[in-house]
Amino acid sequence: QVQLVESGGGLVKPGGSLRLSCAASGFTFSDYYMSWIRQAPGKGLEWVSYISSSGSTIYYADSVKGRFTISRDNAKNSLYLQMNSLRAEDTAVYYCVAGIDYWGQGTLVTVSS
Amino acid sequence: EIVLTQSPGTLSLSPGERATLSCRASQSVSSSYLAWYQQKPGQAPRLLIYGASSRATGIPDRFSGSGSGTDFTLTISRLEPEDFAVYYCQQYGSSPVTFGQGTKVEIK
How many angstroms separate the CA atoms of B57 and B79, rounded? Predict the structure, then answer.
């Protein structure tokens, strides 16, 4: 069955960095565009970043542009999000999403001193 | 950026009743690229409807979507106990992808 498993979340100080990973299985990863979507505690859903199936097209939300970098490795069925210069407002559960269909269970990122 | 406004914010209904949720867009949604998701506490969102009116795999037929342009509706014909949750609409036809703020369907 389809699985998306995020990892790499945790507690980090403001200004710090984290790298999120998402391991995909149960579907043809290279056929899907992928996104990171986040949800701050008790809040709604916010799109963060998009990468096309080949990796040639990338978009970012204005709130993370210049600080976050999305990438993928189709040979490893994996998606990544490098997050630098983290701020308190980046605190959220980060979901890895395939197309619009499949969501991981999320990984919590907490930015706090 | 397309802004999606969902109404009402909270819907208080009893099991067996009909639920009608609205999602209005600030501009026309390209090719009806409008999706609906259900989210329960502590869980990831689950895709219910895509393309404004197509049910995702495994979604019961009590869930239906309709609309086009700027006005979209999710209808749950008869609420089951497991349907009490938060529902989000999403447009994925234009960048950036955007979500509505959510409608909570709670037990009356």
Answer: 19
CA-wise closest residue to A38 among A14, A20, A16: A20
Chain B hits for A36, CB-CB cut-off 8 Å, are none
pLDDT tens digits for range B16-73: 999 999 999 999 998 789 999 999 999 999 999 999 999 999 999 999 999 999 999 9
Interface A–B counts its CB contacts (< 8 A) at 41
The pairing of strands A45-51 and A58-60 is antiparallel
Determine the pLDDT at residue B31: 74
Say what the pLDDT of residue A2 is: 94
Question: A74: distance to nearest CA of chain B, Å?
Answer: 23
Residue A77 contacts residue A25 (beta carbons within 8 Å): yes
Task: Name every chain B residue with its beta carbon within 8 A of the beta carbon of A62.
Answer: 96
The count of residues in chain B is 108
Q: Could you say which DSSP state residue B29 is in?
A: P
Residue A110 has pLDDT above 80, yes or no: yes
Residue A34 CA from chain centroid, whole number: 9
Tell me the C-alpha distance between A47 and B90, whole Å.
10
A:76-105 residues touching chain B, CB 8 A cutoff: 95, 100-101, 103-105
Q: What is the pLDDT of residue B30?
A: 82
Give residue for tokens 């950036």: B96
Q: How many CB atoms lie within 10 A of CB A108?
A: 14
Place of tokens 């219910």: B48
Which residue type occupies B41? P
